[in-house]
What does this fold into?
Amino acid sequence: MRAVDIIIKKRQGLELTKEEIHFIIDGYVKGEIPDYQVSALLMAICFQGLNAKEQINLTMEMLHSGEKIDLSSIQGVCVDKHSTGGVGDKTTLVIAPIIAACGLKIAKMSGRGLGHTGGTLDKLESIPGFQIAISPENFFKQVQEIGIAVVGQTANITPADKKLYALRDVTGTVDSVGLIAGSIMSKKLASGAHSILLDVKVGDGAFMQTLEEAQVLAKAMVNIGNSCGRTTVAMLTDMDQPLGEAVGNSLEVIEVIETLKGRGPVDFTTLCHEICIEMLLMTNFAKDELEAKQRIAMVLQDGSAIEKLRQMILYQGGNPEVINDYQLFAQAKNIMTVKSETSGYIKKIHTHSIGDAAMLLGAGRKTKEDIIDPSVGIKVLTKVGNFVNKGDILAQIYTNGKEEANALRMTQQAFEMTKEVVQKNQIVLDIIK
Ligand code: URA
It folds into this structure.
């Protein structure tokens, strides 16, 4: 077999065989096929696409390129959740305690943020003392004992994806449904959960800007997951405005705690509940939506959901007192306000810009080496469709001075106003099973 023939075949729009996909991925990981040939193939894939069979074969090749997490020693049903990333997306930290309190097991490996989107690990590290690096033995023990762990990735899973993703990043080939689906699903399959809930974000602050694009990606991922014997459901959810109010690490964890206490922002609370409902249904932990809602309401009311968060913080070395005393989080020196310059309806919130502004303040990273300031961020206090008067507060900027003027300007400009009545955004746009 020769790489060049496989490149030409894909350029002509023909289906690649399992053996050909194996030849390329295996050869690339071993360093036998050079970057320039794989780049050419990736570009051909971007133009010609991959059909369902090719997507599954690519996913399996990447999955088998590295270690796989074996969760079979954990008794019970292990679920995983993946978000394609957004602004103010802290859902994992609410969902995981709720579903663990309902009796499911969540052994989750999360990532860090880059660019305008935040990462769960950075949020968790804003809790004083919290450790995201724990040994595999302690990880399994923790999930077995309390049903919940959220950690950084230690095992060498999907090295083929790591190498390919780095190449895609610099060759303009990230943007292909088959490649994205294979990349995400190979990692999810390697993480070992029996059931996988995918939260595919749609809108200005997300990878997928339109519902149609997101549906194609979601269907591809659900098909891969189900074909590999894992129950997989995708929810398509709104990212045309920041999720909840808080964008920035400590601010987001405080919002998580408030939500578990029943005082979270409506959009964020609704999304978390909807995701939990799907998770309980897909694992047969609830026979219907009504029962799922009752179970969720129960663990929130009796305090067992927030108790799961407390236990996880304690097991992972953090100070659980943060749940009662928000002053224990690092505090920003200054809070500045962004006020509406006119009266009218909020037509659009440029979510990507809010994410970028928070990053400039120090809540996120421009490059992998940047250091996060956990205390800074932005609170977006209004939503698309709301009426505001001139002078009303639209957002608050929590700052320690870094790039403050730019962040303020970007946040101010992120709000588009109109005199016309504007429809409020729907949070769950579609569910694909
Ligand atoms: N996230 C991933 O993990 N992989 C992609 O290809 C795109 C987003």
Summary: The longest strand covers residues 195-202. The pocket of uracil is lined by residues 165, 174, 179-180, 183-184 (CB under 6 Å). Residues 130 and 318 are 4 Å apart (CA to CA). The longest helix spans residues 211-227.
